[in-house]
Design brief:
Chains A, B, C, D: It is an enzyme of class 3 (hydrolase). Chains A, B, C, D: It comes from Saxibacter everestensis. Chains A, B, C, D: It catalyses: (6R)-10-formyltetrahydrofolate + H2O = (6S)-5,6,7,8-tetrahydrofolate + formate + H(+). The structure is a homotetramer of 288-residue chains. Chain A has 288 residues and is of the alpha/beta class. Chain A has a 7-stranded mixed sheet. A 4-stranded antiparallel sheet of chain A has the order 2-3-1-4, covered by helices on one side. A two-stranded antiparallel ribbon of chain A has the order 12-13.
Chain lengths: 288, 288, 288, 288
């Protein structure tokens, strides 16, 4: 959360979702005019199926967060708005969970350092230690939390504690090869992004590249999605594919797939950190 | 132009471009609230380089076109708005110009008939007669306007007369292998879309697939752009590419390229007919 | 089938599949050297999983088809080769089956006329009459074969007779909305190509764009595959995708999907007609 | 270079280019039959324009490199073959040259460690020291070779010495922001791969993303090519693109472009290290 002592002329991002009805944009922009704000970016979407309306605004204003929130409250109450407000570019506190494969972690950490991702990776959790060195290179604490059938409950408690103690806002499963319990999924709902190594809903479950190779598909893909209790069924954020042919073996699928996974996950994390993703039932609205 | 006797609850598309300043969206949406309009789609963009602001709104309203125009006038004057107003889905009167290759014409006519393109092709002009039968199949009058060095002036006069007599709003150069004169370009500025068979600015001018093959590129492309007096330099609307390899000959480039050309041009024409393209100097804002 | 009275210096395409073992290429190319042939194109693939070997050769030779076949026979017997031999560019006799949507038929007929597809469409079968005019425009006989629960058996008999009487080598289901019986599938095994309007194995069965929209995917696709008795499970020939977003409705998916379907099917048909597809169990080897 | 004491049943890659004529494949595969070799992969291409023939074979054989070379010599002499012979998977000794931007270096080093690239990065040369830490993390010696107008000659001498003393087989310009002298280009001809941050031949020279943004293109790209004395005109190995829109600023182009650059360069390096690239005049034959 941004504090109140923000500098003048901060840029803010405001996200709104609500039941659709006339006058929403005019009402909200009216508040911004009162606040002396200048809108720098705006996107909206009315879903005729769900009859819900979604709005994302970026604006520059000298008002404090508290002043903005106060000004919005009457309209928010009247129109039943779900409101999100944040400073543009504020690094989102992120916990990355991994197993042995480092391509997604490497990509996220490199992009963060390059200034391309508005996140701060506050910790890396691995159920193996293979990636401790990579985390260390980027100056991020590595937590080894092994998971066995017996230790699973204890391991999840440890993860929950880390989420709390580190003020984690976003958990990224960067090829973490364990399934989170329903309890943890529920607790972190809307805050956990996973990368699945197939073009969902094709090839759910284990070893998707093996499944894809066996089926003889001509494109393989990856899917970044929010984690829900329904495995591989959470709202899709982003997907991408690449072409394969008969000549490529499963190991080629894996190597090519890693490239797709890394860039697909990075986009999803970036959009989430920039407040560009709003949930619309089982679907996502992405204001790119 | 839509007439005034529009039915109640028509859907309208409003496009605005103007110098950027605070309060534009609030002012415009205020007018819409007064008119009892409900916004169904909205996109905006402020270009920090040109300091211009662009807005596209779709809204449903029972007001007539005249009433909407009257209501907008004071705000338009105050904020120096360039305003476009049209009924959503009104077929744009379109003249397609061709030579011998029919892939783009075939695609446009098929899409129009399928209801995918909000245009009405009111005529086809060909400097050859090869495509007369195709036009006829779709019930569109074909005008044979041959062009030679000597007849060029006369030919362009004929085209100008067709544009006038047919109330043409959009001219599409669908692989028309003649260059329009500077006079005609100026007269029809912002109303002529061309498909160039390369990924501009690569391979301007003649025989781009030959140039591309010689250079050994690994992707070939097509570019839909507005026609200006500066050949192949007009504002780009859309581009697309496809992969090629050493094994493909120039004739393969041409065949694959035709597929890219047709779909690239169709997108550009569709967006133009839907009022999704606004000029921003030498660049285009595309509200997809 | 090519006849024997072929002109001198014909270009031939030879396809071979067999159990893998050393010396195959040398043995086959040895025959070609004896025949005074010059290889113009060659591709091969050994599948280490199925331990099968696949070869496609194009060569120029003055020998007759019978002479080539005779020369190959001893090697074919010794190495258990499955051999295919045809003249390059010979138009494959093709029957296109349609319902109401014409985008694939239009694309195939246009490409055939443009010389881009080495097929001869010898007939169009429609269970509706909507596309009779399009077939007629291209000079192709249209056969109206309505299908109801009661008439299905009779309809399939009619189709079988057409396949026989027209010497059909390839049947293309160009958005034909009926399921072929197991008998017909078996009879025409390896000779029927279907276009499914999803990225298989996602969204098998009916109304895939509806399924895709509901699931909130970010890419939609199409799949060209051989038809087998196992619905939507036949060997995949080609797939392609395009990007969609939350803003697009099912009708937008359909329109965009038609473009993907048409080009994906055209590629599959072209490769088949050029002898570039060899079956490898449930997968395809595509020698592009 | 592979030594002679190779283990039995080594897998070899053989590349051949020569003037086209009948019988080449049969002659070469005849040698392999004599050597008791089993072909595992084969691709060939005859360029009808240049009348040159290109062949790449992988085969397993118990023969030593010397035995293979000896066996090939008579055929090579008779048919004027240019022959390349190497062990499959032998890491190619690679020198990576960088300036300040680390995305390509990071990608190459990560892929090498993951076993995805058959190269051994034997050194990193930087004209700045920004990336010394990254090289160190991967255990690769970093050489700081600053370049100024005055020191250029001396700097290139240093680089030449490194190439010699480290037995460098491939030099990768991984966003190295200096132009190599004509002398060095000539000395290392066919051994230097550069990544240019545009879709060549569009936007040659400096600041291509700025040029692309100004021109208002709808796709940006990157090009991996061999370095020749003719700047940005060397034979193209690989190109890729990504979609941009009016909303994206130059910094967005740069960030997205880095992703394209890294994967495009990685592909080019991999193909080169696998012996999949053969020069065909100003073009490349890529046997993927």
């Amino acid at each position: 959360m941004p504090d109140d002592a923000t500098p003048t002329n901060t840029e803010w991002v405001l996200t709104i979702s609500c039941p659709d009805r006339p006058g929403i944009v005019h009402a909200v922009t009216g508040i911004l005019v009162q606040l002396g704000a200048n809108i720098t970016e705006s996107q909206q979407f009315g879903n005729p199926d769900s009859e819900h309306f979604f709005l994302r605004l970026q604006f520059v204003s000298a008002a404090t967060e508290q002043e903005i929130a106060n000004a919005l409250r009457p309209v928010a109450d009247e129109l039943s708005l779900e409101v999100g407000l944040d400073r543009v570019g504020r690094p989102v506190r992120t916990l990355v969970m991994v197993s042995k494969a480092g391509h997604c972690l490497n990509d996220l950490l490199f992009r963060q350092r390059s200034g391309q991702l508005p996140i701060e990776v506050v910790g890396v959790v691995g159920n193996h230690t293979d990636l401790a060195g990579l985390a260390e290179f980027y100056g991020v604490p590595f937590h080894h939390v092994p998971v066995t059938a017996e230790s699973k409950e204890q391991s999840e408690a440890t993860i929950s504690e880390l989420v709390d103690s580190l003020d984690v806002e976003l958990v990224v499963l960067a090829r973490y090869m364990q399934i989170l319990s329903a309890e943890l999924c529920d607790r972190l709902r809307g805050k956990v992004i996973n990368i699945h190594h197939s073009f969902l809903p094709s090839f759910k479950g284990a070893r998707p590249y093996h499944q894809a190779h066996k089926r003889g598909v001509k494109l393989i893909g990856a899917t970044a999605h929010f984690v829900t209790t329904d495995l591989d069924e959470g709202p899709i954020i982003e997907q991408d594919v690449a072409r394969v042919d008969h000549n490529q073996r499963i190991s080629d699928f894996v190597a090519l797939g890693q490239e797709i996974e890394a860039r697909t996950l990075a986009r999803a994390v970036k959009w989430h950190a920039q407040g560009r993703i709003i949930l619309d039932g089982q679907r996502t609205v992405i204001f790119r």
